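Repro:
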Amino acid sequence: MGGDHGPHVTVPAALDFQARQPDVAIVLVGLPETIERELAALGAKPGERLRVQPASEVVAMDEALATALRVKKDSSMRVMANLVKDGAAHAAVSAGNTGALMAISRFVLKTLPGIDRPAIATVIPTMERTKTYVLDLGANVDCTAEHLLQFGVMGAMLVAAVEHKEKPLVGLLNIGAEDIKGNETVKRAAELLRASGLNFHGNVEGDDIFKGTCDVVVCDGFVGNAVLKAVEGVLQMMSRGLKEEFERTALTRLSALAAMPVLRAFRGRMDHRRYNGASLLGLRGIVIKSHGSADRYAFGQALERAVEEVRNEVPQRIERRMAQMPVLTP
C-alpha cells in the first residue's frame, strides 16, 4: 500500500514477478477493495498462487513511528510482518515508510541472537562492473564499535549468500586508510573486525565504494545515509547535465543521436532501478525495503532480492556466523 504509487505499481509488479517465478506464491497485503480493483484492471484475480490478505489500516509515508507501531496494529505493514513471523510468508517487501517498516519489523520479528540492532544494506555499482554492499544506511545513527562489527558480519554473510563469494572482503569506511585515522569508535571497530575472523581489508575511503575495493563497506547509519543520498544526487546531476548539454544546439542534438548507443549503455549500467531493494539485516526473517519512488520494474527487482535471500538462507547464515564469533575482550 505504501510508496509514492501504492498498488498501482506494486500489484502489476507482483504479477510480472510471479510470471517469471512459477514456483513463488504472492500474498498482497492491504485494503482488499483497492487491491482487487487493481487486479481486475489487469485482468487478474486471486487464486492458489495469488492471495489477498486484508488489512484495515495503512501507514502513511510521513506517519509518526509511535502511531505506526502502537496505534495502527492492523496496518498492512504489521499484518505483513506477522505473516513472516507466523511462517505464512518467507519474506516481506514494502515500498512504504522506512522508519515504520524497520520499527514494526524489529518489534514483530525480533533480532537474531548476537545482533543488537538491525541494519539496512543496499548495493552500489562500481567502476569494475561489480557491486559494493554498504551498511548501515540510516537505521542506526549512533553506533558503537560492537554494532559496526555486527554490521560487518551481516554484510559478509549477505554477500556470501547472494553473490556466492566464500570470503567476502569487508572494509570499514573512514576518513583515511591509515590505522591512526578516525574517531575512537571507528578505531575500536577496526580492532574488532581484525579479530573477528572475517576477511577484513581495513579502512577504506568514500571513493573505494565506487572502485570496488571491497565487497562490503561498513559505516554507521548517519554516514551511510549521507553517502547514499549523495550518490543519488550525483547521478541525477549527471543525467540532467548531459541532457542539457546535448539539447543546447542543433549540432549537439545531432551528436546526441550519434552517441545514443553509448548513452543507453551507460544509463543501463547506472540505472538505480536495477539495484532497488535494501535488505533489513539482523532480523529473524527477511524484510526488503523498496525505494518509495520505485516504478513497476524497480519494485520487481526488490521482489527478486527477497526470493534470492530466501533461497540462500541469509538470516540462517548470519545466525550461524554470529554463533562462531570469538569472544572479544573489551
